[in-house]
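I would like you to sit down with the record closing this message with an eye to the fold:
=====
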Amino acid sequence: MNGKMNKIKSLSGVLTHKLFGKRLPLSVSWSLTNRCNFRCNYCNVYYNKTEELDTETIFRILEELKQSGVQRIGFTGGEPFLRDDIGQILVKCRELGIFCGVVTNGSIIDERAKLANLIQISLDGPKEINDRQRCKGSFDAAINALEKLKKRKTWITTVLTKNNLDQVEYMVDIARKYDSVIYFQPCLDYELCGPDSRNMLPAADRFRQAINKIISIRAGDHVVGNSRAGLKALLNFPNKKPNKCYAGNLYCHIYSNGQLYSCFNMQDKKGIDLKKKSFVKSFEKLQQPECEGCFSYATIEMNLTFALHPESAMNALRLVR
């Protein structure tokens, strides 16, 4: 199945949900592992020591995702390329016709990376700033990965903290240089982000200035992946604002131990164990998130797209062409 069919089936699923209220898992984010070879200041995932799913179980769940109508999977971690079977997993997605992306720190880029439809690399600014808030050597690893993947589809994710708000133009230039697309994400304070993230949160007024600069850059250059509507939503930071959320209806999250949730920030709720239950029936029983809003750019863009917001939906179609 090619990318065009993924888009058509996704649009059909959104319309079916809107017309009939049917839950259809079109997109899944999946933390394949909590292991990581980096120690970023704003991430606590590697502290969460849980048993990982074996390859056979992952293949079984992938088959069930296909059966349920999933069109896209975003693999995250930890560092997904620490799994010896990541190549097999990506091949399986391709065989099933599921668009697959991988979020990585870029330190383990080899032939397996070419099996993904999309590689998303984390980079937060110039070497001094990036390595201070991520870890020593992380800048060189990310740049090396972008160089290796220059002819392939790559995105860059930049986490905005109090340290790098004045580096927006620098990061946009990096994205242009490597023919990539860049997304900007505020530093978050969720449980998995770790206690240091709270000390790195940007001041609201400076953050809004940075976002307005990004909006201005985006007006003349689509190297910025965030939609204009998504960026305007970020202007509310740090005051969360409830909005229409499709978590548990059109997308969901799977943790490395096989626990299924409506979204990635529901660890305090009870998940559904996919080691024991099928995804097909489990998705229908997901708890709906009850939260005050979200500043995850991926969630914002997903919700705007599934709401068929014209500009955001067209932006999403452009980026996954």
